[in-house]
Structure formats: structure tokens, C-alpha cells
Amino acid sequence: MCKTKMAVEATEPARRPPSSSSPRRPPTSSPRLSASQTPRFAPASSDPSPSASSSGGYYTSTSFPKHSSGTGASTGTGSSSLSGFRHSLPDNPVIYDFSELRSATNNFLAKPRHSSSSSSCWRCSLRGKDVVVFRRKFRRKIETSSLKELLGMICRSHLVSIAKLLGASVSGDNIFLAYEFVDGASLSDCLRNPKIPNFTVLGTWMSRMQVAADVAHGLDYIHNNTGLNMILVHNHIKSSSVLVTEPSFRAKICHFGTAQLCGEEDENDVLRMRAAAAAAEAEAQGGGGGGCGEITEEGAGEGPSASPRLKRSDSRRMQFEGARGYMSPEFRVTGVATQKSDVYSFGVVLLELLSGEEPFKYKYNKESREFVRTSIIDTARAAVDGDGGGGAEGRLRKWVDRRLSDSFPVEVAEKLVRLGLECVEADPDRRPDMSRVEGKVSKLYMQSKSWSNSINVPTNISVSIGPR
Question: Which InterPro entries does the entry link to (predicted)?
Fold first, then answer.
């Protein structure tokens, strides 16, 4: 009996007698954590609350928000997921020194990388990040304080379908915008490669639906879901401003925030639009040849106090930022970008994505010996509402890009074409807003997904954007 009792006492841990002031609690109510399970995201020496240790609404590397104790002890897995979530948040905006940009771009002698913009651009490394720097001219003068505030708001807008703006730098009349580098090719290059015209990486219907859904989602976010107390307009929607990444062929919209930071729109846009429209109407009624003169600002480039009044030059064209084929009728007259003009540009991109053709091109007519201008809008309207032979389905199959090998849901394609034609209505009031457009595209994407699953399209095929 003695030996057995001694053995039991040797194996049991030493127990402290219960204190009279604190009642003994059952061991299951307060589980102990091992060293590997101790949460590391809340330092004991500092207050981890957002109000005490956050910077600009985003937590620093040594502070995270408190977690409810009702969920139990945090494990190592939860800590790593929080760390990954923090790294996915946008960084605070950076105002780069101009000398820093000169050093990173080899005094701007590096070869431009992207063709997604008519402005000059360079790929370089800034503060350890791979970026693309775009140079643009100010359309109007912006105070430094207003520019910093605007940059801070835009940089905090973050979506997977939008190339992230990291910072900017100002030098004279130029602003340099630094965006994250996106490894991919522009949508225009994916659809039209002169070296291999009969091949496209977007050779399946679902790949094009994915691009359409991403662009619609990104533009709807810019218009309606940024959470900023301002109306945002992209003003540069075109196929060359959409980058397609591999291997999943996800699309990203480039140049977000350019219209605001370059001064392409301001609070006087409505007055300027009315003045330009009235001047154009007066010239048309006066028999001035039916052309529009160039609209500029008096004293442009003479300083922040330059007069915003409009004047005319001897040129017979409008002078503003825009791309042929993507400009809405009212934008061509006034030069004022609105959300409805963005919807028009998206409609052109959607029709371009379905047909693979340019917004408009010229074909030589042998009989008349003249070049005839053909528009993608006119050909799309003829495909769904024309009177040609073969019926509506036959006309649509001839209009859709032949490189899809006639493998696509005809009903979904027809609805997309009609949606694109709604977006390019001449009257901006008859165009839908992007929230409605995005909803329709998402619905058609799900229908296309069901169609794709029903025909068992093979998925074990690897495709590369680059030529082989």
C-alpha cells in the first residue's frame, strides 16, 4: 500500500491550495495556450486599438484591431490570415520627389513599356515596388493641397479589377502617375495582333465573358461604389486601357483617377458644356461651315489664376483628351466627360470584344474607288435588327468573331449585343447606368457558365499570351 501511494504522488503535478479570496475555477473555462499558439498580432506593451495606432485609416505593421474574446483563443492560422488581409489593403498614397523618378527611370531615357496610353510611360522600381509611371499634362491648375487630398482619396479605392494607383509626382505642367505594374497584354493586342491575325488568346466564349464581367464590375465600382463623397468619371475607357492577365484571363482597368488628378473635370464642367454647346449651335445656325472650333482656356499655362473663360482658335477641331471611336456624341461636342460618356465607351468595348473588330475602319470600294467608313455600331445594329438573309441567328453568327469557332450561346450573345447598343445610344438619357449594365453582364456571365458546363469544354489546355 505504501509503494502504490508514493507512485501516485510522484506522477501527479503539484497543486496549490485554493485561496479564500478567489474561488477555484474549473480548468475548462480558461484553456492555456502553448508558445506556438500565443497570438502575436496584439503586443502587450501597446494599445492595439485603431484609434491609438492606425495611420490614415489603415493599420501599421505593429497594430491590428482588437478581436472579440468570445471566439476563443486565436491560433497561428488566424494570425497568418490577418497578415495576408492587411497586405491586400491599399497603401497610403506617396508623393514622390521628382529626382526619385528621374533616378528610377534613368532620367526618363528608359524605353516605354506599355501601349495602353498615348502619353509617355516607363516601367521602373520605386521604393521596392514594380511600377509603371505615366506622364500627363495638367488640363487645369490644381492647388498642391487639393491635389494631395484628391490623391489620398483615389489611392484608397481598391478593387481587383482596377490597376492600383500608388502615388504621383509633379513637375511644371506635368503630373507623373505611378501605378502598380500588371503583367499582361492590352485587350486591343489580344484581339488584334497583326503578326498572327488568325489567332487570339481569347479564343473561347468564357474568356471574353470574363473580361466583360471584370470591366463592367470595375467601372460600376468607379461610378457608384468607391464610398467617396464625389462623382468619379474614368474618361479613358477603351480596349487599349484594359489589361488582360494570364492564366485566368482576368481584366484590369488602367488609368483610374487620371481624369481627376489631371484636371480633366471640375465643378465648372456643366457651365463649360453649356457654353460649348451654345457656341457650336450658334456656329451651325450662322453657316460657319458646320465645323467646331478648338475650345481652350484663356491664359492656359500662365498660372493658377488663369481665367477659365473660353475662347476660340483658328483650328476647326475640338482640343481635348479622347480616343477616336470611343467618344460619345455629346463628348465630341463639349469635351466634358460624364458617367454617361463612360457608359458609351464601355458599350463600344463590349461590341469590340464580341466581334474582335476595331470601333471603326475604312474599306476600299473598288467600284466607287473610294474608302468607305464602317462602324462597329452600325454593323452590330444590322446584325440583330437588319433585313439580310439567313435570319437573325445567321447574321449574328457572321458578325461575332469567327475565331470563336462558332461555339457560343446565341441567345446570350444577342442579349450582349443589344446591351452594347443600349450603351451607345446617341441620347445620354437613354443609356443605362453602370449598376444596371453590370447586373445584366453578371447575369449573362452565369448563363454562359451554365452553357459552358453543359457542353463540357476541355479545361486542360494551356494558352500563353506571348507568341510561340
Answer: Kinase-like_dom_sf (IPR011009), Prot_kinase_dom (IPR000719), Ser-Thr/Tyr_kinase_cat_dom (IPR001245)
